[in-house]
Amino acid sequence: MKQVILPLLFLLPFAAKCQQEASSKDSDVRKCKWGMTQAEVKAAESLAPYMVEKNKLYYKVEVDSYKFILSYEFESEKLIRATLIYNETHINSQSYWNNFKRIAERMDGKYGEHTDLTKWSSDLFKQDERDYGFAVSNGDVSFHYAWYTDKTKISLIMSGEDYQVVLGVVYKDSNHETKETEFKPKP
Question: Would the pTM count as exceeding 0.90?
C-alpha cells in the first residue's frame, strides 16, 4: 500500500500545476473571461480590489516579480479590457527598456512572435539600443508590441514624455470595439 501512496504524493503538486494551467488556458486574461461581471471578476481574483469605481476594479498585483496596478474595465456591466501598469520607479530610464524587453520575451514565449507597432517621432537615438530608455522618456519613441489570440488583442506599450516613462500591458476583447489605449505619464 505504501508503495502506491508514496508515488501518488509526488504527483499531487504536478497535478495541481496542470489543473492551474488548464484553467488559465480557459481564461482570456488572468483567471477571467470576457463578458464577466464585476462580481464574477472579484470572485476570480485571489485579492480584494484596493479601489472600486462604477466601471473599474483596481488591484495591486505582482506578475513574474514585477509590480503592477491592474485595472479591469467594464462596459454594459461586462468585462472588456484589463490593463497592467508597471508600478515601480527607476532613476535610470534604461531600466524600463530592459524590463520591457524581458516582458516581451516572456510574452513571445506564451503568445508567439509579436507584431512590432513601434513609432519613432525622432531618429536621434534609434541606432543605439542603450539610449532607448532615454528616447522614450524624451518622447522620441513609443514602443508597442502586439499579440493576437482568438479572442484577445494584447499590447505591451512603453511611452513617455518630460522624462517620465509609463510601461504597461493591455488585454482587450477582440470582439468589442474600444478606443486605442494611450499611455501618458502622470504630471
Answer: no
